Amino acid sequence: MHWNIDKDFVNTDLLVDLTATDGVSAFLKHMEDLYSERHENLEDYINQTIYIAGCPQLAFKLSDFYKIENGEIFPKQFRIGAWLLKNKKLQTDTTERVFENPFVFANGV
């Protein structure tokens, strides 16, 4: 499957805003609220994987977005493109046809 990608968005650094009411931050926080499990300690809590509707393709680790400092959880900055690649949400075809159909980038989407 071929997807158009907004290169500006993928190359953006993001810090989860715990007070956001829309956008990526609000989505992540809402999914955390819906699907996370409570744990006795903060390390176990942020090291859990959140499965949206039980789907492994829609899973993410809280530790990708949060860190523990002085016994409290804080958002940590991450690059969206790096996170997508690291978690295999964004992949490329590495066969002999790798350059046959170049990626199409959409600006201002």
Tags for this entry?
single chain; 109 residues; alpha+beta; two-stranded antiparallel sheet; two-stranded antiparallel ribbon; 4 helices; 6 strands; globular
How would you describe this structure to a colleague?
By secondary structure, this protein is of the alpha+beta class. It has four helices and six strands. It has helices spanning 7-10, 23-35, 42-46, 80-86, and strands at 13-15, 49-51, 59-61, 66-69, 72-75, 77-79. The strands form three sheets. A two-stranded antiparallel ribbon has the order 1-6. Strands 2-3 form a two-stranded antiparallel sheet. A hairpin with a 7-residue loop joins strand 2 and strand 3 (59-61). The longest helix is centred in the N-terminal third of the chain and has 13 residues, at 23-35.
Radius of gyration: 16 Å
Number of helices: 4
Sheet with the most strands? 2 strands, antiparallel
**Total beta strand runs:** 6
Strand content: 15-25%
Strand order of the largest sheet: 1-6
Percentage of residues assigned to helices: 25-40%
Shape: globular
The parts where pLDDT drops under 50 for at least 5 residues are none
Looking at how many chains there are and whether they match, the oligomeric state comes to single chain
H/E element order? HEHHEEEEEH
Rounded mean pLDDT is: 80
The secondary structure category is alpha+beta
Distance between the termini: 20 Å
